[in-house]
Amino acid sequence: MSPEYIKSLSLEDKELLCSELRDKIIHTVSTNGGHLGSNLGAVELTVALLSVFDYTKDKIVFDVGHQAYSYKLMTGRFDRFDTLRQKGGVSGFPRISESPYDAFDTGHSSTSISAALGMARARDLKGEDNYVVAIIGDGAMTGGLSYEALNDLGHSRKKMLVILNDNEMSIDKNVGGMSKYLKNLRISSGYLSAKRNTENFLTRNLPVIGKPIMKMMLSVKNFFRFAVNKQQTSMFEDLGLVYYGPRDGHDLKGLIKHLDAVKDIKGPVLLHICTKKGKGYKFAEEEPSSYHGVGPFDISKGVVSSGKLSYTTAFAGALTELATKNKKVLGISAAMAQGTGMDKFAFKFPERFFDCGIAEEHAVTMAGGLAVSGFIPVVAIYSSFLQRAYDQIIHDVCFMNLHVVFAIDRSGFVGNDGHTHNGLHDISYLNSMPGMTVLSPRDYSDLKKCMDYAINKCEGPVAIRYPRGSSVFEEEGPLYTEAEDLFKPHVQSDLGDEFAILSTGFIAEQCQDAVLKLSELGFKGKHINITAVKPMPSEEIYELTKNVRYVFTVEEAILSGGFGENLMEQLKGRDLKIIPFGVEDQMIRAGTYKEQLVDSKLDADSIVSRIRSVL
Ligand SMILES: Cc1ncc(C[n+]2csc(CCOP(=O)(O)OP(=O)(O)O)c2C)c(N)n1
């Protein structure tokens, strides 16, 4: 749809467009899976934005990016939308490589205001005149980065619009003081309704002259604020932005009018709108947390949980069991209680659980504070989001050798969310941290054993990485036997001395398959699984492999600084040929988990052919 076409539509047609977009989103997500609730809540906002701004020139910057489906549908991707989140298809997030109209790549939270301010500064340096709009949710506003950006933006006085899309939800119910503050803004009528009445009066009674007067009043923030109400100011105004709102984010006509009114204000403006997550699909409106991100489902029945055991539920079960016995154990989540399984812990021990909001840095440093005070905090964060807290783990935990347990969910490939959500860097960055123990369990019982070690035996920082989804070993019976020591190599198959595959963690599944397939082809080797990535049992590994021709290390993580490279370093000078397999210096984009393994040549068949070609 061209910008001109969108602008030429009547209000009725635009309303019809909203329902067409909703239908398309619901049908596509019900087939492909995806982010439903946030997208349904942002339909009117997107139609209003594209009615007022020109997406071919202006920069529309989404936060997290999990609400950009309508935008994608209206900016040239309608025909391909049934490929959403599939390999080679339309990404579930804005991607500058996918469309010139996607302003910035997203996936992680709270980046939009910073990125948009960069664009506004660049625009002014280049002498251009496009608009820059950042759209941020109230959940993303719990992330520290958004405050750093607001602080800079208010001071910069750059012309830029921030739209705060407030649905009172993060993935779960939003938490923290900011969320309370926004609630107060929503209900404090004096200042806001006074503003609204003035505006209504001006635009209704003086349609021609009223609009510029309104703009002038909004741009002279202090004058307006004190003229209308001396007591109430919003924190955004104190930071240097013009605050405008809250407005109904599903009132298309009103939204277009408000956007039109604020777009020419000279400095930074924040437009606060209220929306409903899941708007237009009954099940999603009723249970917004469950419909934030979903797999394929039947539209008439809604999402039905598979009830299958997963690494996440295995972690939650182990944690709750261990915490029942050890009262020092506390649980911390960064706005992902349900996703990490921490909700089970929170349900059982509400006073021992803390949800910090989308604030991974704060969560880690706060865990340091709890640990230095004698508690054992378990911080459950997805691997890719924990990247945010790199410095906090080193500076606020490792340097003091504090006993903090990092439960790192979604390690390795995550499938259709794509490269921004893959957890491929954890081994590498944790390996370099002083005093950090790094464990990579291969199945549920191994994970449980790691949890017991981390909570009851370890005295310093310890990280346990485990993947999304379920273990195949569940059906086939765990590989782990009670007698095994976590810090010793675990021989899974010993069929000969031609080669040895050394796997770490859950990629053991592919390696076990590969060693059996190679044996059928006449290549007899071993498969040894290593849970302890750091400290690594390198001497024991050497003893087990010194007679084999080649050692292949396999990890579902980037090669650089990883398990294989570390082993090579530790066994440097020994007569052992080590060939590391892992993810090269590349981004593994969206696809199924299996496709991502194939793309990085880490599936069993690729491992077989790579080993065959070496042998
Ligand atoms: C750094 C980081 N931590 C956690 C997440 C997981 N996450 C994705 S969306 C989301 C909630 C966002 O809430 P909000 O900004 O209000 O948007 P809404 O979905 O309500 O529209 C969270 C916690 C993330 N994307 N990035």
| CATH-defined superfamily of the largest domain | Thiamin diphosphate (ThDP)-binding fold, Pyr/PP domains
Question: According to CATH, what is the topology of the largest domain?
Answer: Rossmann fold
Strand order, main sheet: write it out.
Answer: 9-8-10-11-13-12-17
Q: How many beta-strand elements?
A: 19
**Number of folding domains?**
3
Short description:
It is built from 28 helices and 19 strands. By secondary structure, the protein is of the alpha/beta class. It has three domains: 229 residues, 3-Layer(aba) Sandwich (Rossmann fold); 165 residues, Thiamin diphosphate (ThDP)-binding fold, Pyr/PP domains (Rossmann fold); 128 residues, Rossmann fold.
Walkthrough of the structure:
The protein has 615 residues and is an alpha/beta fold. It folds into three domains: 3-188 and 232-274, Rossmann fold, CATH 3.40.50; 311-475, 3-Layer(aba) Sandwich (Rossmann fold); 487-614, Rossmann fold (3-Layer(aba) Sandwich), CATH 3.40.50. It has 28 helices and 19 strands. The chain is globular and about 90 Å long. Mean pLDDT is 92; it is low at 221-231. Thiamine diphosphate (TPP) is lined by residues 38, 41, 64, 66-67, 108-109, 137-140, 165, 167, 169-171, 277, 335-336, 358, 360, 385, 388.
